[in-house]
Amino acid sequence: MSILDKPLTPPPRRSRRRLIIIASILVVLLLVLFVFTDIHADIAFIVHFVTAPNHFTYHGHSDYVSAVAWSPDGKRIASASGDHTVQVWDAANGSHVLTYRGHSSDVATVAWSPNGQFIASGGLDTTVQVWQAATGNLVYTYLGHSDVVFDVAWSPDGTRIASASNDGSVQLWDAFTGSHVVAYRSPTLIRGGPAPWNAVAWSPDGKRFAIGGSGDVLVLDAATGRNIASYGYHGGTVHAVAWSPGGRYIAVGSSASTVEIWDTVTGNNTYNYAGHSADVLSVAWSPDGKRIVSGSNDGTAQVWDALTGKNAYTYRGHADYYWGHFTSSAPVEAVAWSPNGKMIASGSEDMTVQVWQAM
């Protein structure tokens, strides 16, 4: 018999024992899961995990996102980060436009000029830098602070910038020369230095500005820096302040896990929004003044009625697990409403900026 005529020895069959053991373990685990948990919740979690999220995510940063700002025409977003950069990108598809690398440390705040031509950014390097939005070319560096700059805001007419700092001062200055400084300084505490200021916001008419830090929010005269009003009754930390588009109300986000709404005409506390379970880090009014969005340490951004405080929508894009997002409940550091009122951008410690539909 030729070797070619010999029957071939059949290959050894793959042992099915290992596969059976693995399958059995998986079945047991699934049974335990379904017995000791809510099966409907389990199914909902699986569906949510594999379902594409209904938002756009920008992944350009390599560290936490501290601030976001829309360009006045709504076409671009600037985002500041702990990676020492400010990045400008297309708001519709996230295509990259430019990266500004002028800061030597974490960038804590960013603001677009009203005419859309310039951006101001400040951070841990104690500077505020003004640069061209289209090219990233530096225009001016303001060196008036001696500690971290937590917040910056352009005046409505685009001529001045207000900056709030850990050095205990809020300073108003010419956006391109640094001259004509008006400063408000905290009284020196019994222990340590002056109390820091975390937030600053101009009134829509440009005549006043509100500041927040430890304790009450103060409203100052923009021409003299004189304190003309104060709002609040808590001893906690104010993280964010925002004027309503009409200039009558001020929203205050704080360590009390609430957003306080104050009427600047009557001086009364209209109501407190208590939908969050941790510090409120950021607040923004819709352009029509009807709604407010707030971002919190609890990992959510919440949209609610500005007059009644009724919750309209809770956004969990930074809080939940889903495919491509494996960081749960990362604090939402920043929120910003698009100029047309249709979209909201939120920045988080999960290193992303997410753009989603305003409900």
Instruction: Write down the overall geometry.
Output: globular
**CATH fold descriptor:** Methylamine Dehydrogenase, Chain H
Terminal CA distance reads 82 Å
pLDDT averaged over residues: 89
CATH superfamily: YVTN repeat-like/Quinoprotein amine dehydrogenase
Largest sheet composition: 4 strands, antiparallel
Q: How does CATH name the architecture?
A: 7 Propeller
Care to describe what's here?
- The chain has helices spanning 17-36, 39-50, and strands at residues 56-58, 65-70, 76-81, 86-90, 96-100, 107-112, 118-123, 128-132, 138-142, 149-154, 160-165, 169-174, 182-185, 197-202, 208-213, 217-221, 227-231, 238-243, 249-254, 259-263, 269-273, 280-285, 291-296, 301-305, 311-315, 332-337, 343-348, 353-357.
- It is mainly beta and 359 residues long.
- It has a single domain (56-357), classed as 7 Propeller (Methylamine Dehydrogenase, Chain H), CATH 2.130.10.
- A four-stranded antiparallel β-sheet has the order 1-28-27-26, with no helix packed on it. The protein has a four-stranded antiparallel β-sheet with strand order 2-3-4-5, with no helix packed on it.
- The longest helix has 20 residues, at 17-36.
- It is globular.
- It starts with 16 loop residues before the first helix and ends with a strand.
- Residues 1-8 and 47-52 have low confidence and may be disordered.
Task: Give keywords.
single chain, 359 residues, mainly beta, Methylamine Dehydrogenase, Chain H, 2 helices, 28 strands, 9% helix
